[in-house]
Amino acid sequence: GETVVVSGASGGVGLALVQLARERGARVLAISSGSKVGSVREAGAHHVVDRAQDIIEQIRGVAPEGVDVVLDVVAGDLLGEGLPLLREAGRWVVAGALGGYDVKLDVRRLYLHNARIIGSAMHTPRHFDLLVELARRAGIQPVVAATFPLEQAARAQEELGRREHVGKIVMHP
Predict the structure, then answer these.
(1) Taking the model in full, what pTM does it have?
(2) How far apart are CA 154 and CA 79, in angstroms?
């Protein structure tokens, strides 16, 4: 099993990534905070890193040998600062930029260690179908934090902005 880091682990995508990685035999290190830690651990994380503290140092503490894969929906400073955490031939998969899209990194880390940065939007029908099938076989349980009718879109946006929820915010007609 590989060691996998999941950023944004308390969001809907992050929780699904934690479950998928665990199901595939990975040792899962998930980044979350506060009251969300229990839910992330329940989803399958072996260790939860508190984003309110030094993320890089915490990961080094539990994975001094480095990590094989980072599944990242945050990007921003995490990408540039965290790239040295990758083992030889490690992969950093970016599927979001909640932490910012303007990233500074030392490219030598890529070519001297055969590391890869991979963008993933899951937008092709084939890719999406593959992920759905993996989720079905693994018994992945989507986590819905709250549902709102379309008329309450502003309220749903406020809930999302508070960043206190665990899982997805769902809108319905």
Answers:
(1) 0.88
(2) 31
